[in-house]
Design brief:
Blueprint: H1 2-8, H2 12-23, H3 27-54, H4 57-64, H5 69-105, H6 117-126, H7 133-160
Helix pairs in contact: 1-3, 2-3, 3-5, 5-6, 5-7, 6-7
Length: 168
């Protein structure tokens, strides 16, 4: 957890810019930065969920009946951890998209023949005095996809979390 806290102490954008400046801009570098900066969140969620499930009576009953740790993890812990991880993943997708687009806009993300919303916005930025349409056409899908994944995450949270379920 100390390692995860150390990674989380760095601002994501600053860490991404420093890493890309040191290693060089490429798709692999952007993916590595995204993985390194988001893994601590998933680790903390898994740890918290596992610690809360560990004290439940059904886990104690499984241990008393002689179940192996692999069975307890696979049958009881994993199904209870998957839901929060799916919610977190769907809520992180807009952040990841924005980070990649921001790096590509600055010229530190993926390189051009590989398509990127940031590259599209950067190309439109050079033409902004002539016409605003490349910026508008590049930003509307970016806004819609981030809003869509945010709403998906909220819907998954409402669907999976039993405390938030509405009584029908």
């Amino acid at each position: 957890m100390l390692f995860f806290d150390t990674i989380r102490s760095f601002p994501t954008v600053m860490f991404a810019l420093a890493t890309v400046a040191l290693v060089g801009p490429s798709l692999e570098t952007v993916i590595a930065v995204i993985v390194v900066t988001t893994i601590p969140n998933y680790g903390r969620v898994v740890r918290t969920q596992t610690l809360s499930i560990r004290t439940n009576d059904f886990i104690k009953a499984e241990r008393a009946m002689g179940a192996s740790m692999v069975r307890i993890l696979g049958v009881h812990v994993l199904p209870n951890v998957i839901g929060p991880l799916m919610i977190l993943a769907s809520m992180d997708i807009p952040t990841v998209i924005a980070l990649e687009a921001g790096l590509s806009f600055l010229g530190m993300g993926v390189k051009p023949p590989t398509p990127s919303w940031g590259s599209i916005l950067n190309d439109g930025y050079t033409l902004i005095r002539n016409t605003p349409w490349p910026i508008i056409a590049g930003s509307i899908p970016l806004v819609l996809i981030t809003l869509g994944f945010t709403f998906l995450g909220e819907s998954l949270r409402d669907l999976i979390d039993p405390k938030l379920r509405r009584n029908i």
